[in-house]
What does this fold into?
Amino acid sequence: MKNLFIILWILCPIIAVSQSNVIAHRGASSIAPENTLAAFNKAIEAGCDYIEMDIRMSKDDSVMVIHDETLDRTTDGAGQVNQFSYGQLKKLSAGYAEKFDSEYTDEKIPSLFEALLLAKEKVNVCIDLKNSSEMPVIDLVLKMNMKKQVYLMSYNVEKLIRIKTINPQIQTILLKNTLTNVDLDIARDIGVSGVSTSYISSGFLVNKAHEVDLKYWAGIVNDPAKAESLFKNNVDAIITDYPQLMTMNIENPINISPNPFRESVKIQLKNSNNIQRVWIINAKGLIIHEFSIPYPNPLIWQPDKNLSRGLYLVYMIKNETIIFEKILFID
Amino acid sequence: MNNFPLKKNRHIWAKMPIASILVILLFCPGINFGQSPRQKSSGVEASVSYDYLEDLKIYFQFFYSFKKHEPFIGIEFPISSDPISNYGLNAGYKFYPNKNRQTFDLYFLYLLQATSRKLYSSSTINGFSLHNLLGYGFNIYIGNTIFVKHYIAAGIENSWFGAQGNFSDLSLIGSLGIGLKIKPIKSSK
It folds into this structure.
């Protein structure tokens, strides 16, 4: 039993981390103009795991972050993106006034370089290539040393094959509005890391995708309860306009006070339903205290005065999921 | 990385009664066992619904029929344990395309639901949802006054969670129940 807990202690961060990833669709596009640095910043602040962005080429072959082929919807300009130079595009406001009034007037269309710089070492990035050439994107990703942090996404199978031919280490995702078994076979054959599709089809194919070692992303999901359902069905990531709502689920289910503590510590459970076991474990992985059922809320732990001071874990199993929190016992 | 506290298998798409939907799609318009002239009537219905949140709910509705039209209003309560969607009000309108009432009576449906709900299963944050749904269904008459009803509807849910934010997403509901005409329709001779 002791060994088991030592192993659990070591594996704790691995076990407790689920594969439930949140991808912010065009950034936190429900609360800031899509595909702007403001939207990406808000997504990072919300604690999402990936930001998704769309790119298009300017007239002078700069890679710009914008979804539409034209400027009309989200900027104060008009016309095709590829008819304007980098300098001209940078003068436009990308504040999406139709949706956000004048709140984000100062936002500009970011270049891919600016967006990647913002995300580097903070959050993973999914880039929808649209009609852009893959070469400048691959170059930039490699120059910025972000190949492990970036996924290139496309509906175009030929484009994904070319990317893998250019550099097999670049991670790619096949986009499909409606996914079939055949698409999974194609995805496996061309060596993409995963597929991204509508959440409606996810229940039937997610396990098959995993069987062939593909990630399964589903979107666009805006209802946190629906996201729960998808994660329960082993979807690896959901794509959402509302990352700020999805990541509310990662609020700590245990609220501990005071921490560090001297005589006793109060463990407030956000929701005491379905709790299976609660222990206090020391740094060697040994059980110091086991709370007995039924669990009051809050739980109070008053350690023996002879117990050595130091770091302990509140270790809980709830809904077959391990939840833990560090507590510090001091003099 | 996020750690969602999950309460149960909630994947609606795997559980939808696909066979029954196919049967409705394929055969419903063609079934015509018997006919009665439509006349003004009113009645009550009780039904159980299963929605995209995988919550089971019970509905009590009052309806009023005239010609091919049938507005209705009702209340709904959850019957599943720890539901996400809670009590609510609903109102709507059914249109019967057939001039005479059929034994297997097809209709098209608009349903407006206003319900209280949680943000997610273990959330303590409560909000409000408005569902705008379009669908179709049928009544199967057992005699003149009692009928079995079934419909499916899909549409948009708009949810408000105060300071936490709002969102819109797809909504889907399936319903099965029984109805009673308080003022029965006369049979044709």
User: Anything to note?
Assistant: Chain A has two domains: 18-250, 252-329. Chain A has eleven helices and 16 strands. The first strand of chain A starts at residue 21 and ends at 25. The mean pLDDT of chain A is 86.
